[in-house]
Structure formats: C-alpha cells, structure tokens
Specification:
The complex is a heterodimer of chains A (126) and B (235). By secondary structure, chain A is mainly α. Chain A folds into two domains: 65 residues; 38 residues. Chain A is extended and about 50 Å long. Chain A starts with a helix and ends in a 17-residue tail after the last helix. Chain B has two domains: 70 residues, no CATH class; 155 residues, no CATH class. Helices cover 79% and strands 0% of the residues of chain B. Chain B is built from 13 helices and no strands. In chain B, helix 8 crosses helix 12 and helix 12 packs across helix 13. The radius of gyration of chain B is 19 Å and the shape is globular. Classes of the chains: A mainly alpha (126), B mainly alpha (235). At the A-B interface, helix 1, helix 2, helix 3, helix 4 and helix 5 of A face helix 2, helix 3, helix 4, helix 5 and helix 6 of B.
Chain lengths: 126, 235
C-alpha cells in the first residue's frame, strides 16, 4: 500500500514538473495519470502489484474526495442565487447536450468494435 | 454558545471525522436503497456537512483547512485512474478515432451550449464566462474561468454541481438515449461530469470507470484549448 502510494505520488510529482516545464494546460495529476499508464504498459506488473492494490483501495471512494469542495458550494450559494433560472437551465441544458453528444457519437462510431457484455450495468431508470 | 461546545467545535479533527461519517452514511444509504441514483455518497455527505456548516456558522476556509487531507488525496487518486485504464487498454483498439471525435465534439458542445443558453436566458456575461468550462475537472475549470474573465468560485460551484448531476442522472439519461456500449457510457459521463461522475462509473462498471477517467483527462485538455476561442466567438 505504501509502495503503491509512493508510485502514485511520484507520478503526480513528475506530472507537476512536466506541467511546470511545458505549460500544458492540464493539472499535474492528469499528466501523472498518463505517465503512470506509460509505466504500466512498459513494466506490465501483475494485477495484484502494490500500485494496483492502492488504486483499487482508493478509487471506489473517489466520491469522498470531492466532499470538501462540494461543501464549498454551500459557502458560495450566494453567487448561484443571482440568476437562478439562467443558472439552472443553462447548467442542466449544456450538461445534457454534452452528455448526449459524446454518448451517442461514441456509441454509433464505435459500433464496429462495441462491447456490450455483463448485463445489468447498462440502462436503468433515472 | 457555552465553553464545552466551543471546545468540541475547535477540535481540528472534528470536521475530518464528521465528513468521513457523513460519507459513510451515504455509502450505507446507497446500499440500503439498492443503489438508488439519488443515494450518491458524495451528494448525501455534501448536503449533511453543508447543512452543519451553515447551522453552526462555520467559516468555509477553516472547514477546508481541516479537511485538507481528504482533498489532498485527489491528486494520487487521479493518477490511480491509470490502473483501470491499463486494464481496459485492449478495448481502445479500433476505437481511438471515435473516442477522440466524440470527446472533442462534446467539449465544444458543452462550452458553446453553456454560453449560448446563458445568453438566451438573459444571464450576464460574467455568468456565461463562469459556466463555459464547468464540464472539466475543478482545477482546470477554475483556471480556464480565470483566463476567460469568469468568477472562479462560481465556476467551482457550477463544476461540482455538474459532477453531481452526472453521478445522479448520467447513467439513467444514457439509458434513455439507448447508449449501451460501456466505453461510450463512460466517455459521456467523464466528459461532462469529470471526477465526480467517474466516481460513480467506477463503482458501476470497470469499463465505464476506465473510459470515464480517460474522458475527464482529455476533456480538460481540449476545453482549455477551445474554450477561449469559442467564448471569443460567441460573446
């Protein structure tokens, strides 16, 4: 677990350095994700390697990590209240359009190589 | 307020523990309701902790300080998204072009629709600029908002809300649109609801989680490039 975390933090650090050096407009951890992917492809560790186990422990709780930022919405609720209709409709509308475009486009364009395995995960009422 | 209550409220660990407990309650609720879409642990915890913060009149900056440990873990967790992606790497074969086209189109539509709808509904320029990058992960949306002349705290709130929307309603909407390819489903949610949506997809299905994380990263990159161009064009 500690070794896995060290790998993750080292990749994040390398990512931050790449961002600093190149000015590429993404966060350091996202570059770190790409770097770790490269490491995984090159080294091809077994599925129970420290990095795998740390990721499998951390990622199911990804939602937890956004709670403090989310509580910030409450703190800034005042700015959201300025123009509630425009805020709500534009937010939900543009979110829906974006979701639909990516989902439908990727689904149709990927039909040749599509994977619809394991039943149960697809569909579902809102 | 009396001294004993103050002593409890002054404990630096208090809000860390309260946040973890609220999230735990969210997990319990998700299980008890058979994964009802509204029972997203992130939503339950934000509502509960947010209510407490308001009721007890706690300063948000000090709450954020006390829970910095949780927020810190976002960095390594984002890096860790490479692991599910690595496991699904074979599913990228023959899908790279469809994937890139969909994500780029999605980023353009997200920004253009946000700006267009705000204008259509009579919202001001500041709101349009603040909403334009809301589909990307928070550090990027805040940085892009700043470049565009938006209001970063407003953008942060909109970004988190878009994320929660994806965790709650993303899979359901995709079901209605008959999007069944797990890769496409993951890409769609990651494109518009970043890490929070990815948090749901990872729990739902390994392929969806992997592609959601990938879409989150790509959308961040594409949006930071196209948002300034689109906003200059539309405003």
């Amino acid at each position: 677990m500690l070794l896995g975390l060290t790998w993750l933090l080292a990749c994040q650090l390398a990512g931050e350095l790449v961002v600093e050096a190149t000015g590429v407009p993404v966060p350091g951890p996202v570059v770190g994700m790409v770097l770790l992917l490269v490491v995984l492809v090159l080294r091809d560790p077994p599925d129970d390697s420290p990095v795998h186990r740390t990721a499998d422990a951390l990622l199911p709780h990804l939602q937890l990590l956004f709670v403090p930022a989310g509580v910030g919405i409450v703190a800034y609720a005042g700015v959201l209240r300025d123009d509630p209709l425009a805020v709500a409709v534009a937010l939900v509308g543009s979110w829906l359009l974006g979701l639909g475009v990516v989902g439908v486009l990727a689904d149709r364009l990927g039909r040749r190589t599509r994977v619809v395995d394991e039943p149960g995960a697809a569909g579902g009422a809102p | 307020m009396n001294g004993a209550a103050d002593a409890v409220l002054d404990q630096p660990l208090l809000w860390l523990v309260v946040t973890l407990l609220a999230y735990r309650l969210g997990l319990w609720l998700r299980e008890r309701t058979g994964s009802h879409p509204l029972a997203q642990p992130v939503l339950v915890a934000i509502v509960l902790v947010g209510a407490l913060v308001v009721l007890l009149d706690v300063d948000y900056a000090s709450y954020a300080d006390d829970t910095a440990l949780i927020t810190f873990a976002l960095g390594p967790a984002t890096v860790a998204l490479a692991v599910p992606l690595h496991r699904q790497l074979a599913r990228l074969r023959g899908f790279v072009l469809p994937l890139l086209s969909a994500v780029v189109a999605g980023a353009v539509v997200s920004v253009a629709a946000a700006v267009g709808l705000v204008r259509l509904l009579g919202g001001d320029d500041l709101l349009a600029r603040s909403m334009a990058p809301k589909a990307t992960t928070t550090p990027v949306s805040i940085a892009v908002s700043d470049t565009l002349g938006g209001l970063p705290p407003l953008t942060a709130a909109l970004t988190i809300t878009a994320g929660i929307l994806g965790a709650v309603a993303g899979p359901g909407v995709l079901g209605l649109l008959r999007v069944r390819d797990h890769r496409a489903r993951g890409l769609a949610v990651g494109s518009v609801s970043h890490g929070i949506g990815t948090g749901r997809m990872i729990v739902d299905h390994p392929v969806e989680g992997a592609f959601s994380g990938l879409a989150m990263g790509l959308t961040a990159l594409v949006t930071s490039v196209v948002a300034p161009l689109l906003v200059a064009l539309l405003l």
